[in-house]
From TrEMBL:
Keywords: Chaperone, Mitochondrion. This is Putative complex I intermediate-associated protein 30-like protein. One of its GO terms (cellular component) is mitochondrion. The keyword Chaperone applies. Residues 96-197 form the NADH:ubiquinone oxidoreductase intermediate-associated protein domain. GO terms for molecular function: unfolded protein binding. It comes from the Eukaryota. The lineage of its organism: Eukaryota, Metazoa, Ecdysozoa, Arthropoda, Chelicerata. Its main location: mitochondrion. Belongs to the CIA30 family. Pfam families: CIA30. PANTHER family: COMPLEX I INTERMEDIATE-ASSOCIATED PROTEIN 30, COMPLEX I INTERMEDIATE-ASSOCIATED PROTEIN 30, MITOCHONDRIAL. The keyword Glycoprotein does not apply. One of its GO terms (biological process) is mitochondrial electron transport, NADH to ubiquinone.
Length: 216
């Protein structure tokens, strides 16, 4: 019975601590959680933040506030200018480039090896001719953990820039009708996915999937 009471007391203390953490977070600048609840945030990072001295906290928050206020002002200047880009039939707007390593670093390469679910590796680099080269090793070998039945995948996703105060941002493609991709493939079939997240949480992971066939 003592162990049960101790467990209940520990659970109550944990819930009480969660309430304190949530109340403290409500007093900071609002940042929406794509996971739906602040309970999924990293508790270790929050504990490290609590250990920092008050002077360092003020310095970090002041820099964060100054940077985002300037960005917010630029966003409103662009909005009040009311000068949308005019798109005529046949116009092409280059959205993604791979002519430099800085442009390639805007993409995230993720494989099953990053999750300890396989041995696939890959990278995105810029060639001497100024083109992006996505290459690596696709390994379908299964790890010896016993809980993985399929392996051998790798993804390449774009890090979408955010608005001021860490607000999510999306590309405005309403005036466009086609997506042109100049790709020299290796004969494999790829899957092209375009995320279309909505405002409510049930639409955060909405996406459009298309099959992309390449020639070797």
């Amino acid at each position: 019975m003592r162990s049960v009471v101790a467990a209940l007391r520990t659970g109550n203390a944990f819930l009480y601590r969660k309430q304190i953490v949530n109340q403290c977070r409500c007093m900071t600048i609002y940042e929406s959680s794509r996971k739906g609840s602040p309970e999924y945030d990293s508790q270790e990072k929050y504990d490290e933040w609590l250990k920092k001295p008050m002077t360092e906290k003020i310095r970090i928050k002041s820099q964060y506030l100054k940077k985002n206020v300037l960005l917010w002002c630029e966003e409103w200047k662009e909005k009040l200018r009311m000068d949308p880009k005019e798109v005529l039939p046949g116009d092409r707007d280059i959205q993604f480039k791979f002519n430099s390593q800085e442009e390639c670093e805007k993409w995230i390469i993720s494989a099953d090896s990053d999750w300890n679910e396989g041995f696939t590796t890959g990278t995105l680099e810029t060639s001497t001719a100024g083109y992006g080269v996505f290459h690596g090793k696709l390994d379908t070998s299964l790890p010896k953990s016993g809980n993985i039945v399929r392996a051998g995948w790798i993804t390449m996703s774009f890090k979408c820039p955010k608005k001021s105060f860490n607000r999510p941002n999306t590309f405005d493609w309403d005036r466009y009708t086609h997506l042109i991709m100049r790709i020299r493939g290796d004969g494999r079939k790829y899957s092209l996915m375009i995320k279309t997240p909505g405002f409510f949480d049930i639409h955060w992971l909405d996406l459009k999937a298309y099959s992309l066939f390449t020639h070797g």
